[in-house]
Amino acid sequence: MLIYFSYLFMFYFGMVSFFSIRTHILMMLLMLEFLNLTIIMMIINFMIYFSFDEMIIVYLLIFMVCEAVMGLIMLTLCVRTHGNDYFKSMSLLLC
């Protein structure tokens, strides 16, 4: 039971840091990957505890890799068009 509280603490820490560190897009992408990793660890422990099929973990990892690649592509395109990776220079709402 204690391990689930540590995962919830990790998830909470990831959410707080994702919404508080909004200067660089790369830092936001790293926080999203941290949140995905926390969710994957929670799902793995849930599946081990209840002895479910582990094939869904492969699908979730494939989804995480595709998400990371798309984020890096968007980061590269933003740096090429704007010259930096500051979040304020990309968003029209925060100008």
TrEMBL record:
Molecular function terms from GO: NADH dehydrogenase (ubiquinone) activity
Keyword Cell inner membrane attributed: no
Any one of the GO CC terms: membrane
Compartments reported by the entry: Membrane
Key words, A-Z: Membrane, Mitochondrion, NAD, Translocase, Transmembrane, Transmembrane helix
Chief location of this protein within or outside the cell: membrane
Catalysed reactions, as listed in the record: a ubiquinone + NADH + 5 H(+)(in) = a ubiquinol + NAD(+) + 4 H(+)(out)
Transmembrane residue ranges: 6-22, 29-50, 56-79
Entry-linked Pfam families: Oxidored_q2 (PF00420)
Protein's name in the database: NADH-ubiquinone oxidoreductase chain 4L
Chain's gene name: ND4L
